[in-house]
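Dear colleague,

Thank you for sharing your sequence with our group. We've completed the structure prediction you requested, and as agreed, I am returning the results in plain text so they can be pasted directly into your records. Please verify that the sequence below matches your submission; if there's any discrepancy, let me know and we will rerun it promptly.
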Amino acid sequence: MTTMAEQGSMLSSPDLSEALAGDATSAVRLTFRQVYDTYFGFVWRAVANRGVPAAAMDDVVQEVFLVVHRKLPDFEGRSTVRTWLSGVVRRVVADHVKKRGNRAAGDENVDDHPLKSDEDPAAELERRAAAALVDQLLEKMSAVQREVFVLYELEQLTTREIAELTRANENTVQTRLKAARKAFQRGLERHRAANARREP
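Please find the predicted structure tokens below.
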């Protein structure tokens, strides 16, 4: 039996995923099982991209799908399935952060999550360092820039889907995305320059 983390790394059926992503109205006829099987990986990544710590991932993803199960009969297909799921993730993660006393998500010490025996320690530490750097760069952005950057670059929504989700004009989304990319690039260049100065 696979764990939720292992399911999160699996690819969903590309044919079904593409069909659902391209046809919002088809979601009206979807069963919960179809949504779960097709979009589990997408939801897992979306939750992780919003800074939920590893120790809480299972609980938060489970809560997302509890909401999906409850709300799916009311979904009318006015947006794509991904847009709708992103909205659910957005609200569930916000509630999770609030319940944690508004502490910044992801501030747990990584030592609280030991490496698995089959993981390459060097590769895992490098991945964690890269993830921590991305988090730092995102924190320096404005809230609206950070959200559009995460939705587009990490969750891979289109600008149209982001506009639907955030209720903003698509041109506004594109402007925010352009500014967010510039901010991210500037932060990355500063980080690299600081590292270069520290090298002997």
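Summary note from our side: The domain at 119-200 is CATH 1.10.10.10 (Arc Repressor Mutant, subunit A).

Kind regards,
the structure core
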